[in-house]
Amino acid sequence: MTRHLCAALLAGWLAGCATPVIDAVQERLDPETGTTVTRLASPLELLAAAPRERDLDPFAWLAPFETNRMGVRATFLWVATPGDADATPVVRCGALTTRPASAPLTPSAIGLVRPPYRLPAAWNREYLLPIDATWVECLASGAALAVEIARDRFASDGRRRGDLAQFAARLAR
Fold this sequence. Notes:
ten-stranded antiparallel beta sheet; alpha+beta
């Protein structure tokens, strides 16, 4: 009897230590503009495909998001690149490519007070790029994702394909 009681208590204690499941896709309301933002819980981390010079950031980040303001929807990519890169990034999903416009989008231009994701580091550069349904399909398909800046290429390891598929499914509703 004592052994069963100890086992039950241990199982209950271990279950209490379990990390709660976090939805890969979240919806948040920007209270200042009334815009609903559908986004991933966290951006995808892309790693430099080749070693970079000493003390240079080996990461870039990428994440899709959708704004919905009174039924008017728009889909974007949020991209954060190392601050040392002066060139404009090119984002690739399979055969698709996109880059920031010559006049970069700002959060206020798309109906937000602040960007949908927090910069991983204060020295990162941030870009907002409009995308369409073809891009959302590509992200959900598991195609190779990369951000290229001059000679540097940052690529996804593919571990978050399920999150991107959930994002596309949420937008399809």
